[in-house]
Amino acid sequence: MAPNGPDQRPMDDEATDELRSGRRKAARYIVPVAVASVAAATIGLVPALASSGDPDLPKITAQELIEKIAASDTEQLSGSVKISTDLGIPGLGGAASSLLGDAARGDGEGTASSAAPEDKLMELTSGTHTLRVAADGPDKQKLSILDDAAEYSVIRNGDEVWAYDSASNEAYHATADDAKQGKGRDKGADHVVPDSAPATPKEFAEQALKAVDDTTSVSVDGTAKVAGRDAYQLLIKPKTTNGVTSTVGSIRIAVDAENGVPLKFTLTPRSGGKAAIDAGFTKVDFSAPKASTFDFKPGKGTKVTEAEDLEGDAPKDEEFEGLEDLGGLNVIGEGWSSIATFEMPGGQGLTIPKDSDVPPEAEKFLDALGDKATGKFGSGRVFSTRLVNALVTDDGKVYVGAVDKSSLVNAANAAK
To answer: Are the CB atoms for 189 and 183 separated by under 8 Å?
Structure first.
């Protein structure tokens, strides 16, 4: 940390209110710096991007740093991002089609495409990956996933959206209107231009800032050097609220000292160990990319699938009526300590009735899942990742959140 580093004092209530105001501005004005339309739910950066020296920068408060992010008008850049994730769950890339019921690959009528973003972007939810990103305003964006022998790219140029998989020589084509209208939704088109999927440190930072409230401690914690750029480090720590403890230990955002663009995002679980999500640039250039960067034309022999040829339109309201079988969704608490609760259909958990015809092997397998939990609520099982825990009681109630196991048990006890 630089000897004359930034102000590290936590924000008081007044500053927190002002932070909220700055956060709202950030949510409104932040411009995605890569393909805001395509990304996995969680991506991160390998430890190779560790700081290489702490620059001596002028002091700045957390409130001022938030305002700097909100005021950033950077719309042009190109660079490389290293990503890795460790959520404590099995890799989802190869299992994506099974989990989604062939939604990405096509089923029955309609045309399948290995270039559709669904499966490819799911691969980013585990392991280590290298991305190449470029942007020239909100309508010209490109993201490429680089593998040893292949490359997968998604390009938006105006209203045209292309995805190309060099390994299979297949392309996927949509328009911005197709994605907004939900055409091909069940076949992956909704993942071409989603509005809120984070793809870069800046987009992760936007999501984190939306979660900041009075259950959060926010401060500036020194400086860093990221991708050759001087940066301030914004530190976000969830507080224990009403006895509920979040599984999120801290979020650290390295913010470019010159232009306010987040360069690195690191989420560390309260349980410790390496980061669960750690995203940042290895190289970055804030000049305008060449116009040809966003050009794409399928080569000879490339199989092209049109989004409008795939089955599925935007879901109708009645398609969600089945959710009522879950007994409604309620939220207990607020902020980082919030717990979602609902009831499973039939009022039964994961226990197998004694008079059932389920084979003993299947019963033994189910019995091995999760950790047993008991309390005033009765009994149930807790299923855990490094960030999210879920309690399923034997009478069919579910409590889930980014909180520790004891908080879920206490919530279930209180509901009795």
So the answer is: yes
